[in-house]
Design goal:
CATH topology: Arc Repressor Mutant, subunit A
Largest sheet: 2 strands, antiparallel
Protein name: Helix-turn-helix type 11 domain-containing protein
Helix content: 55-70%
Organism: Ruminococcus bicirculans
Strand order of the largest sheet: 1-2
Structural class: mainly alpha
Shape: elongated
Number of domains: 1
Number of helices: 4
Number of strands: 2
Order of helices and strands: HHHEEH
Strand content: 5-15%
């Protein structure tokens, strides 16, 4: 069984049943970073795996899914805002030659 299959089998519906990252590492047999990358890869292939400070879980209802989507949108906005100054400086430097 692959690490992704072990992770998929460990996931339960509902944030109250979230599996912590440390438990996911033990279940997957991977280190912290590799486990997170595996989950990211699963998400990019279409798996809806929610996360919170409690760990990883499957959404059990529209409210949990909506909360997760809102959280991810907020993270995305924060990253865009943080990058804006760096992109402006990069554009300035590139235009100066």
């Amino acid at each position: 069984m692959t690490a992704a299959e072990r992770i998929a089998n460990a996931l339960r519906a509902g944030e109250e049943n979230a599996v912590s990252l440390s438990d996911m590492c033990r279940i997957s047999g991977l280190d912290n970073r590799s486990t997170r990358l595996c989950i990211e890869h699963m998400r990019r292939k279409g798996a809806v795996i929610c996360s919170s400070s409690n760990g990883y879980y499957l959404p059990s209802d529209v409210y949990e899914l909506r909360r997760y989507v809102r959280t991810e949108h907020a993270r995305s906005q924060s990253i865009r805002t943080t990058l804006r100054a760096a992109e402006d400086l990069l554009n300035k430097w590139e235009s100066e030659g």
